[in-house]
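From the shared-data thread, chain only:
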Amino acid sequence: VPLLLAVGCVALVGNIFHTRSVNKSLVVDIEQATADLQVASDSGKDCTKKLLEKTAEVTAKDQQVATLTANVATLTEQVTQLTAQLATTEKPEEAPKEEKPAEAA
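Structure, as tokens:
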């Protein structure tokens, strides 16, 4: 019986050391997962911040493009009007020509 108790105690001690090593490994894995999660969270926050900044830049540039497009349309209309005015002022006033009546043959 004492031999059986000694073997049981050795098995329990071995089991305790194995459980401790497994627990240490699990703690390391949990700490690593927590650190990875923190890095991912920080990275997500940075990406969100950068996205908001870029969205604001794009919105400003879109407004600038719309303004410039309106300016181009206005200037194009002015060019068309000025071209028409120039064409009418460059045409010499043509007096109506009197045609000679055709002579009867």
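The two ends are 158 Å apart (CA to CA).
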